[in-house]
Write a structure and sequence with these properties.
The protein contains nine helices and nine strands. By secondary structure, it is an alpha/beta fold.
């Protein structure tokens, strides 16, 4: 049997997934940030603030924000004076991010962000380029997670740090069942009302359910070569911050 990978609850050929995911994010790019607020009740902002506090960006250090899309994480990193490269495989998402950067005065001059269309599995950057690598709510959308993790390890300097913010499975009794019901039934309806696109948001929820649980994903990070790995569950594991170091 030929290899397949998950696209939500579907199993598809690996060569098909990138295009399918690309269509999803092209469809939602203009409403992506608004939908994040609607779906999480604004909690995603607190999760991202906490995530960046864990990264501890420093002035002058080079950080790659992979799957950085509309710039939410990059803008937070840039406040500390870090030199941030925002990479995403989807140009439509990057275009929205560039527009937002222009509104914030981060499109040119000192403190400007660099925007680059990149595949997380085949980065164009040389080895040992970055001091830190961040990816928020993006790694579950790549075709081969192990390849993306290997590339993250390759482009980091020795002593560089890896941080990933991603949905997982909450272990809080009662809340898990309530969230499952909300996400599967309410989120596509919210997507239809705000973005006119219930199917894209149905995929995003399904992709969370197919993502490896926290212990298995941490092992994948270790298998990619990272040391001192750590998992920090949020809301019982609904969201988790994964980290590791290149030593």
């Amino acid at each position: 049997m030929s290899e397949t990978v998950s696209f939500g609850y579907q199993d598809v050929a690996p060569e098909e997934k990138a295009g399918l995911v690309g269509d999803v994010f092209s469809n939602v790019a203009r409403k992506y940030d608004l939908m994040n607020d609607a779906m999480s009740g604004g909690l995603h902002r607190l999760w991202k603030d906490r995530f960046v506090r864990r990264v501890k960006p420093q002035r002058g250090e080079a950080i790659l924000d992979m799957a950085g899309g509309t710039g939410d994480i990059a803008f937070r990193l840039a406040r500390a004076g870090a030199e941030v490269t925002v990479a995403d495989i989807n140009q439509d998402m990057l275009d929205v991010g560039v527009e937002r950067a222009m509104e914030r005065g981060l499109a040119e001059g000192e403190g400007a962000l660099v925007w680059s269309c990149q595949n997380a599995e085949e980065l164009a950057f040389p080895v040992r380029t970055f001091d830190a690598y961040t990816i928020a709510f993006g790694i579950r959308n790549v075709t081969h997670i192990d390849k993306a993790l290997a590339e993250a390890h390759r482009v980091l300097k020795f002593g560089g740090r890896f941080f990933c913010l991603e949905f997982s499975t909450t272990q809080w009794p009662g809340f898990r069942e309530a969230y499952d019901a909300y996400s599967h039934h309410a989120v596509p309806r919210i997507g239809e009302a705000i973005a006119g696109d219930p199917e894209s948001y149905r995929y995003l929820i399904e992709s969370i359910r197919r993502f490896p649980p926290m212990p298995r994903f941490e092992q994948m990070i270790r298998d990619a070569g990272f040391a001192r790995t750590k998992v920090e569950p949020i809301m019982g594991g609904l969201v988790a911050i994964h980290s590791g170091w290149k030593v």
